[in-house]
Structure formats: C-alpha cells, structure tokens
Amino acid sequence: MAGGGAAGMIAAWRAASAGFDTTLLEANDRLGMKIRISGGGKCNITHDGPMASVLAAFPRAQARFLRPALFAFTNRDVLDLLAREGVHAQARDNGRVFPVDGPGSAAKVTAAFEALVRRAGVQVRLGARVRALEGRAPRLEALVLEDGTWLRADRFILATGGASYPRTGTRGELLAALGALGVPVAPWFPALAPIPLKAPRPEWEGIPLREGALLLKAGPGAKVLARYPGDVLFTRAGISGPAALELSRPVEAARRDGAAWLGYELAAGDLDGDLVALQRENPHLAVRTWLARWLPERMCAPALGMLGLAPDQRMKDLPRAGRKDLAALLAAFPLGEPGRVDLEKGEVSAGGVLLSAVDPRTLAVKGWENLRVCGELLDVDGPVGGYNLQAAFSTGYLAGSLAEVSTHST
Ligand SMILES: Cc1cc2nc3c(=O)[nH]c(=O)nc-3n(C[C@H](O)[C@H](O)[C@H](O)COP(=O)(O)OP(=O)(O)OC[C@H]3O[C@@H](n4cnc5c(N)ncnc54)[C@H](O)[C@@H]3O)c2cc1C
C-alpha cells in the first residue's frame, strides 16, 4: 500500500483486518497530514443524509462510478467507526458533519484512524516515498522507494492522493508513473481553489459578497458559461469563498481556452423596472442607500464611481443610461479577468486515473491483476462539504476489500 492518507488508512485497515499481511508506505513522518488540516483543523468528515443525495452532489459520471463504494461504506459507517474510537460527530444545518470537539478535532480524527490501522496489525513505514512503479500489465512487480529499495508484494493499492498542498506530502508523481505503465490518466488540474484576479482589489480584502451567484462569462457582455450560487470573499490577490472555490475549475478551463471574465450576480429580476418605480415613489432616495441593500457599504461609493455617478446621486436625477448601468451592475458586478488558478492551492485536484480504466466494484485497474487505486488519485473531485473525504474513505474501503485468500501480502 502506498499513501497513508484518508483512503490509504482505511484501505490498509480493511485489508489487514481481513488477514492480509499489509505494509503501508507513507512519505511523511506521520499519517493523515491532509486530514489534520482539513476543515480548517476541524475536519468536515462527511456529509449528512441518504447516500443517494450525497452521490448527487458529485458530477454525474463520478457519481455513477462512486455508487458501489459509497454504498459499501456509507457516511453512517464512517461515523460509527469513529464513534467506536471515541470521536463523536454531529451534522450542521448545512449537512456538513464535524467532530463535536471543535478546533483541533481533525487531529483526533486522524489519531482514531491511525489507531485502527495499528491495531489491525498494519506495518506502517513512515518517511517512505515511492518514486517509481515496476512491472508490466497485467502485473505490478514492485514499488521503488526514493532510496532505490524495491518492495515486492502480491497485490498493490495506491492511495497517494492528488497534487495540491504538496507540503502535506502529495506531489502527484505516481500519476505520471501510472501513465508511463499505460494506465489511462488525466493530468492534474486545479479545483476548489481561490481565484486570483488580473486586477485584484486588495483594499476590499476580507469583504464578502453574499446571497448572490458567481458568474463565469467569456467577457462582460457575453452569455453566462457557468454560474455558482453562494458567497465570495475578496482576498489580497482575488477572490475566495464557497462560490469561488466551486467555480475555480471551469474558470481555469475557460481561461486556458482564452476567454474568461467573472461577475457576481447581486440581484436578479427586472431591476430597471424596479428603479423606474423607485424614481417615481422615492425620488429623493440616495442611489447609494439603495445600492447598500446588495453591496457591502464600503463598496458602494467605488461602485458608483465605476458608473461615473456621484456618491450623493439622488434617484430623481438618475438618467436613463445611468439606470440601465446600475441594473447591469447588480446583475453582474464586474470582478474582471481571472489570473492562473493555482493547482497547489486547491482543496482537491481534478484529474487522476480515468474512471473508465477502473472497475468501480473493486477499484482494480482494468487490465491489471494486482493493482488497485483509491482516493483522490482517482479522477474524482467533489464539492466542498465533506464529500471528498467520504469519497476517499469509501473508495479506500472497497480497494482494501480484497478477496479472502490464504497468505498474501499487500
Ligand atoms: C486545506 C484542505 C482542507 C480540506 N478540507 C476538507 C474537508 O474538511 N472535508 C473534505 O471532505 N475534504 C477536505 N479536503 C480534501 C480532502 O482532504 C482530500 O480529498 C482527501 O484527503 C483525499 O484523501 P486521499 O487519501 O486520497 O489523499 P491524502 O489524504 O492526500 O493522502 C495521500 C497520502 O499519500 C502520501 N503520498 C503521496 N505521494 C506518495 C508517494 N509517492 N509515496 C508514499 N506516500 C505518498 C501523502 O503524503 C499523503 O499522506 C481538504 C483538502 C485541503 C487541502
């Protein structure tokens, strides 16, 4: 087994519990580094609700692939397992499930999985980074460590994760090694990452835009290519927040295609009609006061400036063109062109071993007798909300569910 993260720990625990002589190789000097930093150190373990609704949060092809794994090891199974290790969790109103312990609880989740792994008798080798894969379809022969050591086994499970947050141990190098062996792979691609802007607004750092939707277009006047409802937060370099993370992947794809522009839909509907009515009913109302219904106070004067309107502009003096501009501003508040979305800053990495190359019932790589892959190394990237850890736990469980045989090592 290579990779002692969410998927690898569950796979190793599962295989060893079934009597397999299991060795877990982990590049870091401790297990589960990414779980430790997950959910801001609190760990959003999974998502609440029936598995059908958990599955529905993934893109359709991924959901189809994940179905056997997520039903084999459900969110309830994960939480029961943790509860038996003394880590109790509860769901928030938005369905995200966290340990009840609060800050730092991600470390307890990691410790619980590590305890399971060790009790099951898994031989854990820390500081053991796999550099290369030796073999030829249909059999993998050995994992080659950085110091040149070859580790042979009857079966291999790879759970080395994605390529984001490389300082947590995930550099993504085994994807290329798999590709070189002829396993179909999609290159790593940024996902769930903050979006830099070509013209950032550092003076707005920390300000949120709420209750609207982030829009991706090819240009300011172009049609909407993608829309994600949710908040965004201005950062020094661009935008973050739920909607920005979720839209980062299509934004980077559009940017690479040569045309990407971002706006935030603050309000929808017949805004021009509303403004006409308002000019009649409340002519002395300051435009800025009206704007503050949607836009944070600090942004109102600069927003009026963007339209060439004075900060004390009254409704009654607003010309037709100004009204139209104002309605357009609320329909798509301009954030401008995105910069390059950084793969390393993503909560997950898109790309990985192609799902079509893997049997969803076993996680075995097609055409290979003794090779399974699980977790983020697969071409799976769910939304924020506990979905990605659940996918890692479930695929790890299925990958570690090896057919019972007398003496074998993994
Ligand atoms: C900041 C952050 C916060 C997140 N928060 C959440 C959250 O709250 N909820 C959620 O559902 N998801 C969250 N995620 C995503 C989630 O952590 C991952 O989807 C999940 O950890 C993937 O599990 P994995 O086992 O496939 O990979 P990982 O957990 O990344 O584990 C892979 C392991 O393999 C090891 N490894 C890599 N290469 C090698 C090699 N060549 N040889 C040996 N070992 C190797 C790595 O050191 C690592 O320990 C977050 C991600 C980040 C970056």
From TrEMBL:
InterPro entries given in the database record: BaiN-like (IPR004792), BaiN-like_dom_sf (IPR023166), FAD/NAD-bd_sf (IPR036188), RsdA/BaiN/AoA(So)-like_dom (IPR055178), RsdA/BaiN/AoA(So)_Rossmann (IPR057661)
Keywords of the record: FAD, Flavoprotein
Every RsdA/BaiN/AoA(So)-like Rossmann fold-like domain range: 3-401
SUPFAM superfamilies attached to this UniProt entry: FAD/NAD(P)-binding domain, HI0933 insert domain-like
Superkingdom of this protein's organism: Bacteria
Pfam family, one: HI0933_like
Domain RsdA/BaiN/AoA(So)-like insert: 190-336
Cofactor list: FAD
Protein name as it appears in the record: Aminoacetone oxidase family FAD-binding enzyme
Flavoprotein recorded as keyword: yes
Signal peptide coordinates: none
